[in-house]
Design goal:
Helix content is 44%, strand content 11%. The protein is built from 18 helices and 16 strands.
Amino acid sequence: MTSDLEGFEAWILPHISRVINLTCRPCHSGDDGADHVDKGAGIFAPKSSLSSLPLGPNNRLVNVPSQLLLNASKVHKIANFDSPLAAAFLQCLESIRLAPEAGLDERKTLMVFLLWIKFKVAKHAAGLVPPDPSNPSFWVPYVRILPERLYTPVMFEHSSREMQLLTGTGLDGAVAAKLAKLHREFQVLQPHLRVLFGKSAATDSDQDDSDDDLTFDAYCWADGIFWSRVISFRSFDAMAGTATAPPGTDDCHLVPFIDLCNHSFEPKLRWNIEKDRSISLVTYDAAADEAGSSAVIPIYSEEELHISYGQKPNSELLFIHGFAIDGNPHDSVAFPAPILEATSEEPGDDDPSTEAAKHKQALIAFKRQALRALGLQSNVTVCTAFPKQNNGELHGVLNDESLMTLWICLMTEDDGLRLEPIRGSDAVTIAIGAHQVADKHQLLTAIHALPHFDVIQLRVWTVLLEMISFRLYELHRSDEELGGWNEPASGSEAMVGILRHGHRQLLMEAMDLLTALQEEYCERPVVVEYLQTLQAEEPDEPDELELGLDEPEAPAAL
C-alpha cells in the first residue's frame, strides 16, 4: 500500500490546496488503541517540533477542487474520451441506460466506473499520469489506493464464523436481503457488463488480454466502496440548509484525499461543501460548535486526524464500514414494526377469500400507508438508556418516532383508530377518536386524549418486551450453537463480537426498564378497570389476550 499511497500523493497534491501539510499514510495497529482493526490508510498531521499546533474552529486545512470530485456527470465526460477503452465504456453505459430493467442511476454509474478503472484501465496505464481529468488514466492513482478487501458483512464468506456470529443481531437478515438485491442487479447488468469485461471487450492493444466476465464478488466490492466513501450533497443541504445540489445536478460524489479520513466520535475535522462546490476539511470541536463558542483545537505532531461518520449505531457502522466501536454511546437495535394484524392469527386467516381476511389485509396495508403519510419509519429502534440526561419514563430507550410507529401498528379499530382510503390514490385519511390526524403533532394530541391511553401504552411495553426477549433468546441460542463462543482478539470476528456484546447489554437494560413500566401500568386505575370490564364480558379468555395481543410463551432460556 505504501508505494500506491506515495503515487496517490504525487498525483493529488498538485491539485489541492493545503494550509498545513496533511499527509496520508497507513494506519498501524494500535494507532488509536484498536489493535484488532484494519483501518487501511488515514490522514495525519505533519511532523512538527511544536508539541501542538493550536487552531480555532472552522479553519480550512485542505480544499479539494470540484474538478477532482468524482460524480456521474464526470464519469459520462470521461466515457466520451477519445480512446478505444473509453469507447467500450461508453457503449456499456449506454447499453445499461437504454435497458429499462437495469436503471442507470448515480450509484451504478460510479460502480461501473470503479470496476472499469480497477480491472481494465489500470492494466494499460504506464508512465506519467495524464493531467486531464477527462482522461480515464488520470484516475488510476486514486482507484489503486482503494482497499482491495472490505470487512463488511456482505463480504463475509457464507459459511464463515463471522457470518454465523451475525445470528441474533438482526444483521443476518439485512445481509441476506442486501445480497439478494445485489444478485438481482448483477444478473440484470451482466449482459451489459460483458461489453467491458467479457472476451469481446475493446482494449488499446491488438491482443485481447481481457479477463473472464466480472465476478459477483467484484460487483459487491464496488457497491461497498460506494456506500462507505460517497458524500451526498443533498444530505448535506438538508442538514445545513444550503442548496449545493439543486434538482438536475449530481448528488453523490467520491472525494479523493478526504475519503481517507477515518471515523471518531470526537473528531478534530469535518468536511464542508463550499459555494464553488469544492469540498474542504476544516477544524471542528463538537462541544464548542454546539455551544456556539470558540475553542482551541490542538493538532499534535503526526497525529491521525478524524472526521465523524455521524452518530451511528454499531450495526450501521459494521454493515457499511466494517467496524464496530466498543461502548458506542449511540448504539441501538432495530426491529421491524410489529403491525398487530400481521402478527396475530384469527379463525379464517387461511382462506384469503373471506371478508374477515380481506378486511385484515386491507387494514395492514392502510397502517403501512399511514406510517408513510406521517413520515414514520417502518421499524422501531431501541436505544441506549441515558437516565441522567432524559427525565421521561423511557429514559431515551425509545425515541418519539418509534413510539408513534408502535401506536399506529398496535392500535385497533376498537381503540378508535380509523383509516380510510382516499379514492384514486394509495393514501389514507387517519382519525383517532374524535381527532383527525395529518402530522406527528396531531398524532400526539389525539393519542393522549384517549381515555384508555394507559392501556395502549401497556400494550406497547408488552410487545416491546416480547420482541426484546426473542432477540435475546436468539443471541443466547447462537452462543450455544457456536459451542460457548468467546470473543476473539482480532479480525472481523472481534467486530461482530463488539456488536453482539453491545446489543445484549442494551437489550437487557431496556428489558429491565420496560418490565418495571409494565408492572407500573398494570396497577394504573384505567388499566385495572379496562381489564376487569373485559374479564366480565369474556370470562374464559386468558389475560394475555385482553390487551389485544397474541403473546407467545417467553423463551425458556431466558
